[in-house]
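Support request from a user on the community tier.

User writes: "When I paste my structure tokens into the form, the page sometimes reloads and wipes my input. The last time it worked, I copied everything first. Here is what I submitted, just in case something in the input itself triggers the reload:"
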């Protein structure tokens, strides 16, 4: 997305990709310094243990997740948020059908569509 143009991105099921079974993703707005991503997960989904250099802010729109990291694990539910520092291994699992908004900084080039 151009840095001098303002565009509106609508949340849309049709714009979501399915990067793995049980997980759907929609890249919303982004610039080189940050990116907003919408994820939906079905109950029972468990993501791969992973890390990335980006800081990640997570806001739970609906549902309930278990989040695991090197210091332990915790549950988060609708209306709660947390920050994952860059390069920290983590994994999430959905206890219910869930939706989260993730903000990454800087933006995730691996999620961005070609311009």
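"...and here is what came back when it finally went through:"
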């Amino acid at each position: 997305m151009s840095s001098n143009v303002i565009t509106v991105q609508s949340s849309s099921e049709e714009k979501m990709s399915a990067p793995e079974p049980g997980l759907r993703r929609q890249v919303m707005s982004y610039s080189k310094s940050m990116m907003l991503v919408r994820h939906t997960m079905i109950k029972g989904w468990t993501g791969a243990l992973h890390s990335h250099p980006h800081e990640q802010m997570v806001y739970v729109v609906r549902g309930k997740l278990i989040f695991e990291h090197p210091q332990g694990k915790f549950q988060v539910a609708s209306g709660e948020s947390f920050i994952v520092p860059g390069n920290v291994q983590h994994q999430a699992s959905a206890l219910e059908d869930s939706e989260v908004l993730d903000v990454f900084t800087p933006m995730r080039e691996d999620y961005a569509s070609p311009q």
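Agent notes: The reload is a front-end session timeout and is unrelated to the input. The chain has no helices and nine strands. The beta strands are 17-20, 23-30, 35-41, 55-62, 64-69, 72-77, 81-84, 91-94, 98-105. Escalated to web team.
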